[in-house]
Structures are given as C-alpha cells and as structure tokens.
Amino acid sequence: MVPYHEQVTDLIRRRRSWRSYLERPLSPGQIGQINRFIESMDPPPFGTNLRFGLVDAHLPEKKRMPGTYGIIKGARHILVGAMTSSPMDFEDFGYSFESIILFCTELGLGTCWMGGTFNRTLFGLLIGLKDGETIPAVSPVGEPASSRSLLDSLFVLSAGSKSRKPFPELFFSRDFSTPMSEPQAGEYAQALEMVRLAPSAANKQPWRIVAAGDSFHFFLARSTAYRKIFPEADLQRIDMGIAMFHFESAARASGLAGSWQRMDASHGICLPRNVEYRISWVAA
C-alpha cells in the first residue's frame, strides 16, 4: 500500500465530491505527481488487471467537460480507469481508484466519482480502451471552484452527501441482530468510522460489516434497481472496494495488521433481504 504524506484518515475526512472547477489545466508538476503515484501502486487485493490514465478532455469551445452530460464544469483533466473481468473485479477497481482519489485530495485537487453519468465510448477512445477492457468509473481532477454551480449544489442536496448513517446501522457484532456502538468497536473504531465516511453511489452506503472473533465480514446491502439502470458497471460492488480501502488503510495507520480473504458464504449468519456476503478482513 502506497503511503501518503498526510494521515489517510485526514484525507478521507477532507475529500468531497466536486463538479465545479476553475477553468485552468493541471500543472506539469501535478500531472507528473499523479502519474508517478499510479505507477507506484501495489496490485489490488485480488489481482484484477487494472489500468489508469489521466487524460486531457479539453475542447476550447466548451466550458463543460465533454462526455459528462453537462454535469462537470470547468475541469480539463479526467482520471479514467479500465479493467478486465475477474471474480472480484469491481471491488479491486473501487479499492485502487479510491487510493488515487485520496492522493489527488492530498495535492489539494478536487475529484468526483462518476460511475453512471459519463460517455464510456468517448473516454474509451481517450484512454485507448483495449479488447476485453471496460471502464467502470471516471473522475474529473482539477482545482475546485470557490463556489459550487447550481447544478453541483443540486447534486449534493439530492444525494444527501453531507449525511451518513449512524454507526449501529452499518456495523454489527456476531450477527445482524446485534448493532455495534463505536466504543464496542475498540481499536477498530477508527477503521470502521472511515468506512462510514466513504463515498458511495447516491450515498446509499451499501456496506454492512459484522465483527466475529478476529474477522470483519463485509456484506453488500443491494439496491436492486442499480444493476438495471447502470448495467455497464456494478456500482455497489465498486462502493464495497472503496470501503475496503478505507478500512484497510485506516487499520494499518493504527498499527493493525490483517489480510483480505474470501470465505464460505455467510458464515452461518442469518442475512436480511437483499444482503450478500462479499469479503472478510482477518486480523493477523
């Protein structure tokens, strides 16, 4: 895991989704820093073949970034990620893309996860999409404007981006009938709080975590309509990857070692409707 100069927990708290940017390109130094970070990244937890590129999507006659359906204003550069199919591909993608997003945050740059509202054909051309690759998500990268556009403000309001579910609605002890309080989480309280603060599609916060013994089992509480609306990418599994990165990076920052493991089904836990097991963190 590539270290940041700042505490990763500070970066997670500082990150915001921005759709309004100053109309100026990134400097060569900023572009170089981002590219070097991408080159230095470790493989994702499950080894999916991923590729990332910072592309110039500037068209002089347009103030809104082409290919984003008018949502992004002022930005010139966009981070594009491509992947090939594998059993844990979307989780791996979310995990790795979020690590780049937080590095951009450390540089003082704005970003915005975009998984459904962008033109995949256009950005496929910009990144040189290869056979067998798909683009699950992109993000503008630039200097945030001093104030949000009206459209940007409406997105923030409609998504409820400033609100998060309380701790006991997301995290549990032994099974889903026993909510966990922050004090009960002990040394993992900060790692779980970083999951609670993670971005997700429409702020659905689909992750649910059950702590049992030395393991933290990650479950996905699905909003079934998402797969029908956005068939190109499993956005909520991408959200799970983001949660995984937040949890692991915060745990390691606290000196807590462990590894990701895919275990048997639901571990005997009675699952609520539309909840499925995805992955477990096993403490070392």
Question: Can you describe this structure?
Answer:
By secondary structure, this protein is of the alpha+beta class. The chain has two domains: 149 residues, 3-Layer(aba) Sandwich (NADH Oxidase), CATH 3.40.109.10; 117 residues, putative nitroreductase (tm1586), domain 2 (NADH Oxidase, 3-Layer(aba) Sandwich). Helix content is 32%, strand content 19%. It has nine helices and ten strands. Strands 1, 2, 3, 4 and 5 form a five-stranded antiparallel beta sheet that branches. Strands 6-7-8-10-9 form a five-stranded mixed beta sheet. Strand 7 and strand 8 form a beta hairpin. Helix 1 packs across helix 3, helix 3 packs across helix 9 and helix 7 packs antiparallel against helix 9. It is globular and about 55 Å long. It starts with 7 loop residues before the first helix and ends with a strand. The mean pLDDT is 90.
Brief description of this entry?
The chain is α+β, with helices and mostly antiparallel strands and 284 residues long.
